[in-house]
Amino acid sequence: MTSTPTAPVVTRFAPSPTGFLHIGGARTALFNWLYARGRGGKFLLRIEDTDRARSTQEATDAIFAGLRWLGLDWDGDATSQFEAAARHAEVARQLLSEGKAYKCFSTQDEIAAFREAAKAEGRSTFFRSPWRDADPATHPDAPFVVRIKAPQEGETVIRDQVQGDVTIRNGQLDDMILLRSDGTPVYMLAVVVDDHDMGVTHVIRGDDHLNNAARQMMIYEAMGWDVPVWAHIPLIHGPDGKKLSKRHGALGVEEYEAMGYPAAAMRNYLARLGWSHGDDEFFDDAQAQAWFDFGGIGKSPARLDLKKLDNLSGQHIAAMADDAIVAGAQGYRSATGADPLSEAQSEGLSRAMYCLKDRAKKFPDLLDKAHFILTSRPIVPDEKAAKNLDTVSRGILAELTPQLQNVSWTRDMLEGAVGGVAEAHGLGLGKIAAPLRSALAGRSATPSVFDMMLVLGREETLARLSDAAA
What we know:
The protein is mainly alpha-helical. It is 47% helix and 10% strand. It has helices spanning 23-37, 57-70, 85-97, 108-120, 187-197, 210-223, 253-259, 263-272, 285-291, 306-319, 322-335, 343-352, 363-369, 371-374, 383-386, 391-405, 411-424, 429-441, 449-469; strands spanning 10-13, 42-47, 79-80, 101-104, 145-148, 155-160, 164-169, 177-179, 202-206, 229-233, 236-237, 302-303. Residues 1-5 have low confidence and may be disordered.
């Protein structure tokens, strides 16, 4: 049976804690978050930690940190799949008692021998257990697994919101193992029981899980549970159209934080990776939540394009509130292991924001442009800037300094004072701007010299000019 949920939407993100939060997983989490938040529903987080050998607390913490940085808040506490193992086994035993599952005593060696013989004879290697309909009186006192009785006739239709109807012949479905011989539940059982118990109404996940849906539906049907709405989304590929890997660049969300992208830009970009709303490229969370639906998801794999991400990132920085940019810059420095900005540096950065934020693509660009306000005297010019501070230039700065001491500290008056000194020497404004940049910032590429003067203030500007002139 397929449900037509009238209850509130409940989605979930269920990563395995075996490494960092992969960018593909981050997009899956985002799609689930957008779908739930846009409908007043719940977004749940489940850590699928049944693989005890590979699951680590460090990886779990990295998933939490990645989701928090992305701004994807989940409802309630994150749950552990491993901790619900007894409940998973209980469902398998219920199916066993109802005759919908059975004990299989076939050993691994017997199954392997059957497949080898079938292969040699050109027959199907599809294993059908001889114990499916065996009389319990014939059961040996030996280890067994519990298998579900798969339907053997007819078809199973996965009604997928992205892929459309996908039909699988039931004859292709094996009697899937539910409990291993040591009594532990398998992943496929755990997923279904957890999703049912958590009230999940919509399962939004990668299309590499599409074939799993048919096998998981056997458990839903056998238990008489509502089947969730399926939405299997295409994976993310690299620019070359091949499956995303290290050769394409960053894979983990934390790497993008360390590259200096704002979280809002990542949400915007990841939403557009495989989903669209008309021609809209730049949008905020409220718009994404209002617009996001399954109809906008394409069937083809999305391609990672860092140039598009850079462009969106610049637009988001330009649109962000100044205090949010300062907080983002602090987060970027923390992610890269740099010292945090001091209170004075943060205040200076806020003052300078009007002349920094419009052309910065990422936080490192912005902080580089802000070097003049983040550094302190004595200003040590870099090699290129030092060439602009020759004897003649230093003399002009010495002449300019007293002119600036009594002038009103406005852009018009500063431009007039600097322009007057330049004119007296028969120079264009550009010729005097170069030594000014070197004196004020120690760099040859900076914001406008007048913006720097206004941000630094009279006292600091004059002190830097005096240092350079001397």
